[in-house]
Amino acid sequence: MSALLERAGISARALDLADRVEDFVRDVVVPFEKDPRRTSHGPTDEMVMELKDLARKAGVLTPHILADGDHLTQRETAAVLIRSGLSPLGPLACNTAAPDEGNMYLLGKVGSPELKARFLDPMVRGEKRSAFLMTEPAADNGAGSDPSMMLTTCHPDGNHWVINGRKTYITGADGAGVGIVMAKSDQGACMFLVDLPDPAIRIERVMDTIDSSMPGGHAVISIENLRVPADQMLGQSGEGFRYAQVRLSPARLSHCMRWLGACVRANEIAGDYANRRMAFGKPLVDHEGVGFMLAENLIDLKQAELMTYWCADVLDTGVLGTVESSMAKVAVSEALMRVADRCVQMMGGQGVTADTIVEQVFREIRAFRIYDGPTEVHKWSLAKKVKRDWKKAQQG
């Protein structure tokens, strides 16, 4: 998969790592796609740990975080995460999956040495999964795309904080060993690190959802009088939203990287099918309708790649990149939805079966258009920027 675009600005070490990740995913991980331990709520933890053990032996576990704790650049990370995404199981095996990858990034940026040793290091080693507890049930009119609506509360009590509330769509909570909990104090949003499971954090249910790639599924959670030591707060009271942005901008882009890899593979499968399948006296690829869909896929995949690396370059400058990550999230998720849809269409009845990963990739990409903010919310945010810039120009 190495391309000229990818090689620009990437060290030989990172390119070699990306190549090794691709070889591992294609040769070792892909055969697990038929494993019966893949459930509707994600692969079992037994299966995930087996895959991580194989990645550890191959030297590609948590490849984006180096042995000294340093992180690859975002451009280098893109090269690696795109390759890990060539199978829906690849990010789990390589420990580059959401929400762990984003949580590791956040803790690496803002965690104290003590918090890193206790919470981050086991995640980097692939020993613990994590969950990010921010979104709240719509039925409660809690925080979703608008985090200012947060209802979960926290208040100090001696050298502890006490947290109460409900959360929903919490990916991987069932089976997680680390939790990042967001709550609202009198000063504003706060973020806490907690050990999981905890009797004060109860899983009400794991929902049945359209996607099935993430271990533990997506849970509805009740938090009742959770006591957290004060030194397990990230930063200070009221800084939670700022830290959330540190996590969310790169995390949006990481989704683009992983699912770009998945759609590259889906397109490979659909292209192979179109070249082999005969209809009306010739291969499907020779029928203009199918050939044009393959051509359109190449265009959308290249545009998604360009947008992903462009946003990575912006993040590598050290700026927050909120606007750029919103643009990338919209452009890439919508482009990949078109790619996945065409792959299903080209394969006809075969495309809606579980005989290949094409059907799963289609479902997962549909959910990706909602992860970390639906397309419409990002467009609305970008439109507000247009208005702000216009007002500034009028005043200047």
From TrEMBL:
BP GO annotations: fatty acid beta-oxidation using acyl-CoA dehydrogenase
Q: Which GO terms describe its molecular function?
A: acyl-CoA dehydrogenase activity; flavin adenine dinucleotide binding
Please give the Pfam families that the UniProt record associates with this protein: Acyl-CoA_dh_1, Acyl-CoA_dh_M
Q: Which UniProt keywords apply?
A: FAD, Flavoprotein, Oxidoreductase
Q: Which GO terms describe its cellular component?
A: cytoplasm
The Acyl-CoA dehydrogenase/oxidase C-terminal domain sits at 238-385
Q: What is this protein called?
A: Acyl-CoA dehydrogenase
Identify the species of origin: Gemmobacter megaterium
